[in-house]
Amino acid sequence: MQINDCKAARTGRARWVRVWDLPTRLFHWSLVLLVVLSIYTGNVGGLREMDLHKLSGYAILALVLFRLVWGVTGSPRSRFADFVRGPRAVLAAGSLLGKAHQGFAGHNPMGGWSVVAMLVSLLLQAVTGLFARDDILTAGPLVRYVSRRRAAR
Ligand code: HEM
I need a labelling partner for 108 at 20 to 30 A (CA). Which of 38, 85, 118, 147 fits? Predict the structure, then answer.
């Protein structure tokens, strides 16, 4: 939804609008913490850290799946239909070409696509983690479905 809050602010008629619902906020900040934890534990790589790594990976997977469902069933601003727009809307919003800023409650059209990119990336990272192994300490639960043969050089 587009709003004229800039004008409202100038004329002193600005008002607070609650945009994000509680589940979306909880999703957002849990994801921030868990992605930091996953990157840290994945890079440190000790036995305890990798146990934690798997747990945080599962939690990220659950959060992303939740967000996909919430993007269809959630409150109006959280729905994909509200912020995933076609290329024309992205260009019209000026977020690529630096045109005049327009106010949006929720994600603007460019931000909407960055949400999609982030969800897809996290889904890929977490799902491929299920099939990964470090050949020393840790393996994902689905590693048996991956061949151990090395690629020919
Ligand atoms: C979005 C979630 C995840 C992120 C951001 C993430 C990130 C990372 C990072 C940064 C590493 C270190 C890579 C390296 O040192 O080369 C790693 C390794 C690893 N991760 Fe994840 N991971 C995620 C999910 C998962 C999940 C769900 C599992 C399995 C349950 C998993 C299993 C592994 C394993 C087995 C390794 C070691 C692989 C190797 O050393 O080649 N990860 N991950």
Answer: 38
